[in-house]
Amino acid sequence: MFTWLNKQGVRSSDGFEVQFTGRFTAEYREGARYLVVDVEGGGNGLIDFNPRAFEWWDNSSVRNSPEEQARMLKNFLAALEFQGLKGMP
């Protein structure tokens, strides 16, 4: 279940947040961990991004496992969908 943080961000009851922080950036956060996803709007609610953004937390030197990356990507896409957007990785 999602709740709005503001006009550009949502929080999931699963413990993560997605916040658009600029025209071409979004943050994915889980507690104190975060990463920045470069995004580009393709029109009609489409958001283009590179799924490799989920390989590393920005504040960690440990690479995320493929399973962790897939989970985070799934979360990110769900948050976009809740906001009426469609992710195009």
Uncertain stretches: none
Q: Major sheet: size, sense and barrel closure?
A: 7 strands, mixed
Tell the overall outline: globular
Helix amount, in percent?
A: 10-25%
What is the mean pLDDT? 94
Number of domains: 1
Order the strands across the largest sheet as they lie in space. Answer: 1-2-3-4-5-6-7
Rg, please? 12 Å
Report the end-to-end length measured between terminal Cα atoms.
23 Å
Order of helices and strands: EEEEEEHE
What is the strand tally? 7
How large is the share of residues in beta strands?
35-45%
Q: Enumerate how many helices there are, as a single number.
A: 1
- What is the SS-derived class? alpha+beta
Any overview of this molecule?
With 89 residues, the chain is α+β, with helices and mostly antiparallel strands. It has one domain (2-88). It is built from one helix and seven strands. The mean pLDDT is 94.
Structure, briefly:
The protein has 89 residues and is of the alpha+beta class. The protein has one helix and seven strands; from the N terminus they run E-E-E-E-E-E-H-E.
Descriptive keywords:
single chain; 89 residues; alpha+beta; 7-stranded mixed beta sheet; 1 helix; 19% helix; 44% strand
Topology readout:
Blueprint: E1 2-6, E2 9-12, E3 17-22, E4 25-30, E5 33-43, E6 46-49, H1 66-82, E7 86-88
